[in-house]
Specification:
about 400 residues; 14 helices
Length: about 400
């Protein structure tokens, strides 16, 4: 018999969750790059492009807040499958003729995609907490790092795929191919994913979404500013700057950002080794503070180089690579710490609240990315990025050192 049938159920479920997350992320990364490049080509301003993602981020905030409660009530298998289905609908909405691709219509499709993305993400991250015992915190960090790192590697492939598909088959052809691929994964997931995974033992009141420990609140606030720091220059300002100021074409932009995110994902997967994770020692708030402090210097350095006109292209590329590596370690540390501090029963409530803050940071960063770049410059986006990282470091420094584990 194939080796698959002899694997423990926890490993099988981890593989299915990861596979779902991988495929979803591939389409999500490609969709984002397709929208940015396609509408930039149509003459949309940076702020207008940012507004196309406004509902994507707004509904991400709402979805994480409510989705954690739904996961506890319905089970994470159901919320993950709902997320896959909604992404298929979002892709199908963008198959309309070009004349029907109005701003409100694209924003509505992005709203569905935002709901889908955060349902899928919350479900995947919460599932890992349930598949690893509380006594194996070292393994928890490793599994979270592998899930998150591999996901971001595929997100980078998605960026490249988006740029490539736009050049090869056009916007509508890309939407059709991705919708078909994701539909196949969704049908498989309906039958293969474990029933009632993550469903709370007791009926969970809706008010539980706001009842959080000090550690969860601290991590959520730090996450908000951490991801705002990334998206304030990465989401809109950077691709448009590369196209408008450095004359990069779609292939170069998609390819470079793809390689950046792939490398970012590889570093995330290696984060447990880079931070000294072991059965006897797992990193805490002090380690997260140290890595955030290091990160703050990078966007500030890039901004200084751009202001001084010092080898602009080289400074931007090298700085972006350094930012990605250090940011990846910060992100992995945060992802581990939230699962480590989360309550095991109804874990999706804590994780959903945390990723609500993550989505709020992305929303803030996305809007600021378009507005600051259009009103000021890429340098201003980078200075705001540095400020946000400093705020994240100051908050994470206050994280309680002890963790309380809740038995299964």
């Amino acid at each position: 018999m194939p080796a698959w049938f002899h694997l423990p159920d926890s490993i099988k479920q981890y593989a299915i969750v990861t596979g779902n997350y991988w495929t979803f992320t591939l389409t999500d990364g490609a969709l984002r790059m397709l929208v940015v490049l396609h509408f930039h080509t149509l003459g949309y301003s940076p702020l207008q492009i940012a507004l196309l993602f406004l509902f994507y981020e707004v509904f991400g905030v709402i979805t994480n807040l409510v989705g954690g409660w739904l996961g506890a009530r319905l089970g994470l298998n159901r919320t993950m499958n709902i997320g896959l289905a909604l992404q298929i609908v979002a892709l199908a909405m963008l198959l309309v003729p070009p004349s029907a691709l109005s701003v409100p219509w694209v924003m509505a499709a992005q709203a569905l995609s935002g709901i889908a993305k955060d349902l899928n993400k919350m479900s995947a991250k919460s599932s890992i907490k349930l598949l690893v015992s509380d006594s194996r915190q070292s393994r928890l960090f490793t599994w979270v790092a592998v899930l998150t790192g591999s996901k971001n590697t595929l997100k980078g492939v998605g960026f490249f795929l988006g740029g490539a598909l736009l050049s090869l088959v056009g916007f509508r052809g890309a939407m059709l191919l991705m919708a078909v691929m994701l539909s196949l994964v969704w049908v498989f997931s309906l039958f293969a994913l474990g029933k009632d995974l993550g469903k709370a033992r007791e009926k969970t009141p809706f008010t539980a979404i706001f009842s959080k420990s000090r550690a969860i609140n601290t991590l959520s606030a730090a996450r908000l500013f951490l991801f705002g720091a990334r998206d304030v220059w990465f989401v809109v300002a950077l691709p448009v700057y590369l196209s408008a100021n450095l004359d990069w074409d779609h292939w170069n932009i998609g390819g470079f950002l793809a390689l950046w995110v792939i490398g970012y994902g590889v570093v995330q997967a290696l984060a447990p080794r880079l931070t000294g994770n072991s059965d006897e020692r797992q990193p805490g708030g002090r380690a997260a503070f140290a890595w955030a402090t290091l990160l703050a210097f990078i966007p500030a350095g890039i901004a200084l180089a751009l202001s001084a006109q010092y080898h602009i292209q080289a400074s931007l590329v090298i700085g972006l690579l350094a930012f990605g590596a250090v940011f990846a370690i910060n992100s992995s540390l945060h992802s581990f710490l939230i699962l480590s501090h989360a309550n095991r029963d109804g874990v999706s409530l804590d994780v959903g609240f945390y990723y609500m803050a993550n989505a709020l940071g992305r929303l803030l960063g996305t809007v600021l990315s378009g507005w600051l770049f259009q009103r000021y410059s890429l340098e201003m986006c980078l200075w705001v990025s540095a400020l946000f990282v400093v705020l994240s470091a100051m908050i994470i420094f206050k994280l309680p050192a002890s963790r309380q584990f809740h038995p299964a």
